[in-house]
Amino acid sequence: MNNFTFHNPVRVYFGDDKLQELPDLVKEFGSKVLLVYGKSSIKRMGLYDKVVDLLQSNNIDIVELSGIDPNPRIESVREGGELCKKHDIDLVLAVGGGSVIDAAKGIASAALYDGDPWDFYSYKVQSEGALPIGTILTLSATGSEMNRGSVVTNLKTKQKHGWGSPYTYPKFSILDPRNTFTVNQHQTGCGIVDSLTHVYEFYFSKNDNYLNNRICEAIMKTVIHYGPQAIDNPENYEARANLMFGSTLALNGLTGFSNTWDGFNHTTEHVLSAYYDIAHADGLAILGPHWMNYILDESNVQKFKEFAINVWEVEDRGTDMEIAKRGIQAVFDFYQSIHMPTQLSNVNIDDKEFDEIASYATRYGESVGRFKELSKDDVLQILINAK
């Protein structure tokens, strides 16, 4: 096991009716919040009214920023930062899924920065502070409720970058599975794929270890077991609860405490969705199994065999390569069973921008990915295979 430092300061309040703790949590930091949310879903489900009533009845002032996009835009971060400065906001409260929470992290940092917040996401500067952040999760997917990461899109420059700092960990996150009951089939599927991909990118590691692998496998098996149940019965509390905390654990540092992050899937998908504005997990569902097929060889077949048997319960018969390939096929089959795309043509992407996408995916060096380093030509071939 490699040396590591593990720290996660986020307080998680998990379960039914934990929302009632919101006023006391907010008052630890002040009495004026910027309420950040998406377009209409939290109003349709009644959560918006509950949050506003709780805050107002406890003399907490609210400034609102709505309309956060599924791939949050830098324009929203800029607007939110200015609202924080104008209204002397004490805490940024994100109510929604990962996109809303990601935007809130950028906003909280922009509130204490005099320049353009895109400077953070283009890696020109590091944040020297941020307003406190609280979250109320409504979508099990990104794990942003318990990590410091934030991904924001700049459509003008066709860039989608991830960034975070020690200051962008939420101070608290309220996770009530009932707040995910109204999530539709596609968004539930997106959350399943995003959670699994987060784990893949630590599970497939050159320097893996036994404990890390078993933690990763437990999370993946839980998501695979409960995901279809949540799709078939959206108000199945046990399924939604396991998906919710499974997605949180997938990217709160627990799965990667000693392993390296591979990075191919998220790095390449961020380029895809910056160019085409597709759902993040649609891109991950397409890239993931094609990446597995492409990198599988004799040097890593044992890892893929382990994945096939321990995660997908593939029968241990035949050669190692045959078992590994059946495991990868299980990924394709599972994604199709939950109605997620597995080809770029499924989301109306053709090969016109493939060369440019492959170039940008490898922009930080000659390759992308750590489990198996992939050149621009490798990335291009994976895109062609996924066409």
From TrEMBL:
<dbReference type="InterPro" id="IPR056798">
    <property type="entry name" value="ADH_Fe_C"/>
</dbReference>
<feature type="domain" description="Alcohol dehydrogenase iron-type/glycerol dehydrogenase GldA">
    <location>
        <begin position="9"/>
        <end position="177"/>
    </location>
</feature>
<dbReference type="Pfam" id="PF25137">
    <property type="entry name" value="ADH_Fe_C"/>
</dbReference>
<dbReference type="GO" id="GO:0046872">
    <property type="term" value="F:metal ion binding"/>
</dbReference>
<dbReference type="GO" id="GO:1990002">
    <property type="term" value="F:methylglyoxal reductase (NADPH) (acetol producing) activity"/>
</dbReference>
<dbReference type="GO" id="GO:0005829">
    <property type="term" value="C:cytosol"/>
</dbReference>
<protein>
    <submittedName>
        <fullName>Iron-containing alcohol dehydrogenase</fullName>
    </submittedName>
</protein>
<dbReference type="InterPro" id="IPR044731">
    <property type="entry name" value="BDH-like"/>
</dbReference>
<dbReference type="GO" id="GO:1990362">
    <property type="term" value="F:butanol dehydrogenase (NAD+) activity"/>
</dbReference>
<dbReference type="Pfam" id="PF00465">
    <property type="entry name" value="Fe-ADH"/>
</dbReference>
<keyword id="KW-0560">Oxidoreductase</keyword>
<feature type="domain" description="Fe-containing alcohol dehydrogenase-like C-terminal">
    <location>
        <begin position="192"/>
        <end position="385"/>
    </location>
</feature>
<dbReference type="GO" id="GO:0008106">
    <property type="term" value="F:alcohol dehydrogenase (NADP+) activity"/>
</dbReference>
<dbReference type="InterPro" id="IPR001670">
    <property type="entry name" value="ADH_Fe/GldA"/>
</dbReference>
